[in-house]
Amino acid sequence: MLAVDAIETSYGVSQVLFGVSLDVGPGQVVTLLGRNGMGKTTTIRSIMGIAPLQGGTISFDGRPIHGLPPYRVAQAGLGLVPEGRQVFPNLTVRENLVATAANRGGNAAPWRVDAVFELFPQLAARAKSLGGALSGGEQQMLAIGRALMTNPRLLILDEATEGLAPLVRAEIWRCVEGLKARGQSILIIDKDVTTLTRVADAHYILEKGRIVWRGTSAELRLRADIQHRYLGV
To answer: pLDDT tens digits for 20-30?
Structure first.
């Protein structure tokens, strides 16, 4: 579905990505792992067309999307839950969801507000509350719901549970597992390796802008050395 092939991205004269390649297949949950500052968010920004490429290609469903403006990438079927949530603070929960509603892919059972509220009952209780008045966990749920309202074929979660309380993290992972059961393709950045190896199918590890390891959950669980070398603090 998503094929990232040898991409290179720079900010001014500072190169951040050096030949990064990764793939996400239909129905797969794939992670992008690594310590802070290794290029994970830049990879996502490159995929979404926010950071222009200096080299390499990105295709979605066999069609090139590199070079497209971000709104065209989103229209192609990629939904982003950005780092920091970035909900609309002056819109209510319901308005945040309705604002992004679209079904360009002709999904036979598209996401609607009531379906998002069923996925996250806490949001239903806060439907009339402003986005800026929500807790961090509620804002993350809203950001996920807002992305789902675009009916994406690929959902991208940048720092899925960063800074959230344990109970809220558990709720987010429950959501991810439920989406996977529905066949949703997902690309995740997060630091919870234990949970990710339970939820995800495949993993890529970034170190200084390069993919240094890739493999399945079963393989990563067995590689304590890899986890310590590239993911430990």
So the answer is: 999 999 999 99
Residue labelled with tokens 């079927």: 77
- Beta-bridge mates of residue 7: 20
What CA–CA distance (Å, rounded) separates 113 from 94? 7
Structure tokens at 21: 């390649």
Three-class SS state of 147: helix
What global pTM score does this model have? 0.93
pLDDT tens per residue across span 5-24 = 999 999 999 999 999 999 99
Q: Does the pLDDT at position 85 exceed 90?
A: no
Q: Helix, strand, or coil here: 161?
A: coil
Calpha distance 158→87 (Å, rounded): 14
> Rounded distance, CA 159 to CA 135, Å?
16
203 in Cβ contact with 23 (< 8 Å)? no
Summary mean pLDDT of the chain: 94
| DSSP codes joined into one string, 5-26 | EEEEEEETTEEEEEEEEEEE-T
Angle among Cα 77, 195, 231 to the nearest 5 degrees reads 95
7 within 8 A of 21, measured Cβ to Cβ: yes
Alpha carbon distances (Å) from 148 to 136, 196, 217: 18, 20, 25
Residue 129 — very low, low, confident or very high, per pLDDT cuts 50/70/90?
Answer: very high
Q: Which helix (H) or strand (E) holds 64?
A: strand 63-64
The Cα–Cα gap between 95 and 118 comes to: 17
User: Where are the alpha helices (H) located in 182-223, listed in sequence order?
Assistant: 193-199, 217-222
Q: Which residue has the tokens 């990438």?
A: 73
